[in-house]
Amino acid sequence: MGVVDELRGRLRAEQVLTDDATREAYAHDDAEWAPYAPPAAVVLAETLDDVVATVEVANATGTPIVPRGAGTGLSGGANAIAGCILLSLERMTRIVEVDVDERFVVAEAGVLNDDLRRHVATHGLWYPPDPASQAISTIGGNVATNAGGICCVKYGVTTDYVMGLTVVLADGRVARIGRSTAKGVTGYDLTSLVVGSEGTLAIVVEARLKLLPLSGREDRVVVGTFSSLTDAGRAVAAIARDGIVPAALELVDATCLRAVNAWQGLGIPDDAAAMLLARVDETGQAGEALADRVAAHLAAADASGIERASDPDEIDRLFRARRLAYPALERLGPVLTEDICVPRMQVPEMLARIERIAAEADVTIANIAHAGDGNLHPLIVVAADDAEARARAKVAFDRIVDECQALGGTATGEHGVGLLKLDAAAVEITGVERELHAAVKHAFDPRGLLNPGKAIPV
Predict the structure, then answer these.
(1) Other beta carbons less than 10 A from residue 330's beta carbon
(2) pTM over 0.90
(3) What burial letters (b/e) apply to 332-346, b meaning 16+ CB within 10 Å?
(4) Are 244 and 215 in contact (CB under 8 A)?
(5) pLDDT tens-digit profile of 176-201?
(6) Residue 355: strand, helix, or coil
(7) What SS3 class is residue 47?
(8) How many CA atoms, within 13 angstroms, populate the side-chain half-sphere of residue 226?
(9) What's the first-to-final CA gap in the chain, in angstroms?
(10) Geometric angle at alpha carbon 254, from 252 and 255, rounded to 5°
(11) What are the backbone angles phi and psi of residue 99, rounded to the nearest 5°?
(12) Is the Cα torsion angle 30, 34, 38, 39 positive or negative in sign?
């Protein structure tokens, strides 16, 4: 029997899809720039047993298996390879448990980030990790890439909230790793190994996630408009040097601002080269004093305008340009999304280098950034069906990574290595460290069937 027949023997027929349209639709995530090929079959898992059955078939037939959530990844981590099983967990959407006293939630891999956040909010609790794709990305995908987000500068990224996982190993065995207590150091930290491993070590089917109280914060926003991108970068460095840890510190450059303005008519000044959005959430007079310090740093970096707000609707208005930047740019053409992270003091220099690369490669590069932790997202926009522009974009993409690493940064802050950053990962992971990575991969997946060719250099 072939792999498709084996799958149909273990699962319902409507869970194993082989028509050309479905195979093509599931062949890649949002990183169409990375290689992909239609899978042999798409499996729509609904239960843990479905995942186990699929992995057992893959193991028995020697078939590679590529796990996928909602397909919102930006590095090709969920891109299919020819002949593989594409295992989708998007139907696994149960929120199994909310423990209010111990402050955790147990959720299946296919639960959307926003849905989980709304659900726990009804219990007076908060799940902080907030990737830009929070409305459409899944918890399993967030775990796979160790997703960050706007508030991670203060509250941390996905791994800081993963207490435990239920995973399926490469041979079909189920492992329940981690803990349900606030602290615990028994044994190796297998949970942290799996978080961020992009489906190359195990398939996450369920996560136990730490929660925080929903109350106890008062949002205040300070927004500075700048006539120079590097001036905005200087403000970022000054805020960090002062020891301020904002709840968010986001940068949006002129290209993004113009795209959003043209689309939504937000009334942003035409001469704005960049906008820096800072949010602090300390309560009472402490919060007001912190907002004052942030505003002083924006002014010292030559902000041409400063706005402040504490009303939720006004805060939402001020952050609108940041939230709409990516979809506004997509209206202009295909976007090749970067994800680099540099030391905070190097943000101004990295922004200057990105500007030079854009001019030298003759490409349009827009910049949005989680500037408070040095995580920059240069967005390279090209005209549709322009092969020469795509080639120049890839050159710029690689040069940005090179410059980032030259400044002591890392090639990916939150999107993952996937396929697009394999060469860059090979620069950062060398020698003994690469041997350790290979040994971990072999221990979890000795036959190399789980998402092969992704995440780590070989």
Answers:
(1) 13
(2) yes
(3) bebbbbbbbbbebbb
(4) no
(5) 999 999 999 999 999 999 999 999 99
(6) helix
(7) coil
(8) 25
(9) 32
(10) 95
(11) -100, 105
(12) negative
